[in-house]
Amino acid sequence: MSIPIFHVDAFTDRPFAGNPAAVCLLVEPGDPAWMQDVAAEMNLSETAFLVPRPDGFDLRWFTPAIEVDLCGHATLASAHVLWEQGYLDPLSEARFHTRASGVLTARRAGEWIELDFPTCPPTECSPPAALLEGLGVEPVWVGRHGKNHLVEVDSEQTVRDLRPDFSNFSELDTGVIVTSRSDDDRYDFVSRYFATVFGIDEDPVTGSAHCYLGPYWQQRLGRDTFTAYQASERGGVVKVTVEGERTRLGGQAVTVIRGELATTPVVVSA
Length: 270
Fold this sequence. Notes:
The protein is of the alpha+beta class. It folds into two domains: 3-113 and 252-261, Roll (Diaminopimelate Epimerase, Chain A, domain 1); 123-244, Diaminopimelate Epimerase, Chain A, domain 1 (Roll). 20% of the residues lie in helices and 41% in strands. It has six helices and 18 strands. It has helices at residues 32-42, 72-84, 129-135, 156-161, 166-169, 210-221, and strands spanning 3-10, 19-25, 46-53, 56-62, 67-68, 94-98, 103-109, 112-118, 123-124, 141-145, 148-152, 175-181, 189-195, 200-203, 225-230, 236-243, 246-251, 253-261. The chain has an 18-stranded mixed β-sheet that branches. The longest helix is centred in the N-terminal third of the chain and has 13 residues, at 72-84.
């Protein structure tokens, strides 16, 4: 059986930038252990697995180490593949049914793709010692929501210069989003994302992190709409609009590789 798989760079308009994701198209649900093996083989920050259903697609995301509950760039990549390869009409909305994050949607907006994701407002908290020691800088503000801490620091240069001690981050039960106002007039804020707990020391461009960043900067700046830059080595642009309990994330995507898995899928037993 031929299993189509694609390598897509998300949150960028050019190859070899943004955040790479694999998108694997299945006919029926795969066994989680098999999907985890495929994700480890792809060795990208996320591999998305899609299974068609009458009202959309089931969607699951795996890092090389674990399954995760929410992923922006691999959802963006999935929608891009569905439209580009003709699995969906270009004017149709993409609907994704997820294991832990409900129904997520994507629609085309010119050259951009807009995702409808949950809003995740962080609440101020005392920073764990491992977080402070891992960052090695003094934070302006620290908060948490669910499986992520959010840290504001004093400047964009501090964000860019961070060289975390990942051995400390491995002691945390969360990812770490670090942010500041941007020095570049094209962007409202910058960020980086460290996800040692999920098997990724630094994620290049993290759509889901902007579900936390959007409401945080909404409170700080008194606005609902932002253009953000994730200042990793690869870098990427995310448009963010906070609308109550939902956050819209805008990005672009480029297919880099089209292929197929030369292996027999292991499916979920009936």
